[in-house]
Fold each of these.
Amino acid sequence: MLTVIFVMAAEVMIFVPSVARFREDFLLSRLERAQIASLALLANDSLDMDLEDELLANAGVYNVVLRRNEIRQLVLSSPIPEQIYATYDLRDASALELIRDATVTLFDPEERVIRVIGDPVKQAGLLIEVTLPTAPLRAAMLDYGLRILMLSAVISFFTASLLFIAVRALLVRPIKRVVSAMTSYTLAPEDTRRIIEPSAKVAELREAEVALKSMETEITSALRQKERLAQLGGAVAKVSHDLRNILTTAQLFTDRLEMSQDPAVTRSAPKLVNSIQRAVNLCETTLAFGKAEEPAPALTGVRLAELVGEVIDAERLAIGDFDLSFAEDVPATMVVRADPEQMHRVLSNLVRNARQAIMATGACGEIAVAAREDEDEWVVSVTDTGPGLPPKAREYLFQPFQGGARKGGFGLGLAIAAELVRGHGGRLVLEQTDETGTAFAIHLPKGFSLVEEGQGSAAEKMVAAHQV
Ligand SMILES: Nc1ncnc2c1ncn2[C@@H]1O[C@H](COP(=O)(O)OP(=O)(O)OP(=O)(O)O)[C@@H](O)[C@H]1O
Ligand SMILES: [Mg+2]
């Protein structure tokens, strides 16, 4: 409908000038015919009345005056039925005047007689003037106008039909397809088969489809990952539960070890007991907390040198006779405010990573743990002479399951360590990593207190209370 309206509007814009043009042509042809009729008179001066009337009727005029030069003029005349209504001079009429006169003729239904002046063709004189009725002119103009209108109606109808078909095929149908693809995707967003396949021919629509496809692909993979994580959460809960039971049994046996007569056994027994106790605690907090985030730390004064000593002792057991040395530079009196269990996990993850990295190279190496403090924070650094972080680990640093580049590793250790340090209000920083080694630093702020404790969820408070 819009196309029909637009084409018709465009037609009106050309309708008025072309009707004006038609009128001008009509009048000029009358002048021409009148000129020919008057020339017949010129050829034969003694024309009889009947012949003169016939000539005038053929020319469609009442009178003709052809001025050949200043004196000579030829006249054909027949009676004029009424007074001359208006005179139009075509010799110097402007386009606007022609349009105005045409409009007046078109909208004036009265039959009038007009006089028209023009230049004779082929310079056959100075001027030609005819008198003629408006009725045939108006009838011809109406006929011509109607023909134009009919033609434009047909053109606009055809254009509109073609446009309608094109819009349907190129836009409406693809848009409907996109909408139905979106609806179907919404019903099962985890199904990759429902992701839209771009097929539109129109560039803009195709762009929209491509953008939609990439969005849907992202959503689907995020959903799948979430689902995997939820399943993993369930698995972790089950494993933690049964592991705790197994460890409790082991604890009963280690208690007996402490009573052993063998001095080597009695020396290592407390460490074993401690390790198992830690494992039991970890299982219990995981079960109690039941979410992926770590529980809020239970802050106490921790003698750092002792903690580092324990971590290093445990790692030393794992190196066997590999050529790897540990250096510890922690002031014996330094006490940091931290959760001892969590800090133990942070340090052992860092030291273990360093040890595994060095051992994987097969060359000898050193791991150094050092600590210093200033007014605002404690800084514990773990430095090694290993091969440096592989690019993948660097790219996904501290992101769970992403940065693991070690065979048998899960890529969780660094993420856990970073999260635990964050829980203390601090940050874990990769200070340096290249082929000469890697250095991580744990920054623990001194002014940190658990503001979240007051606002934490019921579960968090329960865990905190449990740990206290
Ligand atoms: N000190 C280091 N020197 C060299 N590479 C390291 C060091 N620490 C970590 N990496 C690299 O970073 C990766 C990620 O370490 P992360 O501890 O997060 O996971 P993982 O050790 O692979 O597995 P796990 O979850 O068992 O700890 C490792 O696979 C290892 O390639
Ligand atoms: Mg690790």
Amino acid sequence: MVLSAAVTDIFSDQLAAWRAYTETPWGRIRYQVVEETLRRETARLGPGLRILDVGGGDGMDAVPLAVRGHDVTILDQSARWLEEARQRAATANTRVRTVLGDLSEPPPLGEFDIVLCHFVLQYRPAAALDVARLADYTRSGGVASVMLPNPAAGVLRQLILAGPRAALDDLDSEITNAVTFGHPVRKIPAVELDATLGQAGMPVVRRYATRIANDLLATNDLKYDSVYFNDLLALELALCDQEPFVRIGGMYQLICSKT
Ligand SMILES: C[S@@+](CC[C@H](N)C(=O)[O-])C[C@H]1O[C@@H](n2cnc3c(N)ncnc32)[C@H](O)[C@@H]1O
């Protein structure tokens, strides 16, 4: 499948829609669960880590890491998103280093203890080269965290929202729609990424998921109730590292270790 060259331009255009998404209950669940999984991953490696967030955008994952004292760099191809990240860091009384650049021509930034690449690869033409670039940025013994929408969960979500015909159509399709950006993106099953990471010398050592419970709920109204939301978030946190739930979360997170 060929994704248009203009695919990355949609990010700057859709910044307002993205902000709105991050404030929804399901957006808050995504970021709060990942803040917890990254807290666990950083705790394994120690304080004062060098962290690179590739396609880190407006810093939603990166800024909480900087607040905890890590040395955080965001590499992104959108100047507007990077400006947003710097503002977010300033509001949180911290700072992040921002680098305007494209993963297709990765700038020399050295090696990092942790490399994040969350919700970028599905917009890119093929995963293998990008994964090799992530490996180049990761020091030996360091880890990378890669997150993507889970195509398997997408089938179940279609079933819940639109019925078995829609689920069958989704199962057969190689692409899906990025809801916030209204743009077709590549489906990358966890098993495929797992193999690609292994081939790049970064075997998967842990897996997490988020929006496991959220995406099984057909209606959203109750999620705006604070008591209900807190229970839902507590459930997501309880399930985020548990088999078999990690296989059906709306978004999967693979942690791989550079050998
Ligand atoms: C869906 S957003 C995800 C932002 C962030 N990682 C998160 O999960 O909140 C995708 C981000 O990847 C960036 N991006 C897309 N293609 C890129 C490329 N080729 N090089 C660098 N950044 C890219 C976009 O500008 C955008 O900030």
Amino acid sequence: MQEKDASLYGFQPRFQHFATQAIHVGQEPEQWTSHAVVPPISLSTTFKQEAPGHHSGFEYSRSGNPTRNCLEKAVAALDGAKYSTNRYFRQVAAEFGLKISFVDCSKTKLLEAALTPETKLVWIETPTNPNLKMIDIEACAHTVHKHGDIILVVDNTFMSAYFQRPLALGADICMYSATKYMNGHSDVVMGLVSLNSESLHDRLRFLQNSLGAVPSPVDCYLCNRGLKTLQVRMEKHFENGMAVARFLESNPRVEKVIYPGLPSHPQHELAKRQCTGCPGMITFYIKGTLQHAETFLKNLKLFTLAESLGGYESLAELPAIMTHASVPKSDRDALGISDTLIRLSVGLEDKKDILEDLDQALKAAHPPNAGHN
Ligand SMILES: Cc1ncc(COP(=O)(O)O)c(C=O)c1O
């Protein structure tokens, strides 16, 4: 069974003990006087001290909170990291007016050419949103670290900790929009960061405490709960995603499908080398024009037309008009984000129902009497 799973579609073997760690690390009942099996939502903003400076490990909820602690320990274990802390990084960076350049990091030479003596940090997203381009994390880490003390950050939102471990591939920081797969239930907006460097960890902790950018205990509780089913959810997203990708690829109403799990994906070999599987994110070009894309989206019954991704529910969206409308048209054109590009977040519903919904919506966009079967 183990071997069959490991070789599924030719991807890397799954990370060992993942589900056990997701369920148990940081969740020890002994840490609570009640021995609660499920971590309590610790709403208190402050914690009693036995004497000035003598505390239980918690002083004030901004600098440390018991519920947040459970989540941080679980995420660190799942990322194979020493530390996990919540995201404020991007927002902070943007505020300081830092010089930023955008590079196609799937071409390591372009990345190398863009590095300057002032480069402090390289941020990559793999696979990219919405074109699902894969970036070779190991190659980027090699290039970046060769040039000195530059921090490599990988946005691991699309793959989740279950399918990709950037830190093991040489990244310095692994970050998530936990709003997506990590929480998985579309009811929390949160960021996560995992890392191994003690000095970087101390610096981020200092900033977290100084800036006060901490998530609520309720959100931490929900995200921590979401992690307990990350493995089973991701396996099902993979199964449903692969079925949808294959269905779309063989559909005459579809121009092109982009899914790293398909052999037709330009970086399929890299995906198999770097990841243990693929999530439910699929991008495809419907044949025709904007009108066909809109008719397709309007006719979906099971998929909801909405932004975001990675929840248990299937979502569909039109990046050119929705999530990526703020990207200048010239950039959208260069990236291939056209009016017929549709992004799906395939959920956990029954495979047959998902495929039937896509089939009927495609037929509504391109009726059978218009030349398609
Ligand atoms: C890959 C990726 N990273 C980061 C974000 C930002 O996440 P959040 O909305 O949780 O701040 C998104 C949101 O869509 C995303 O898709």
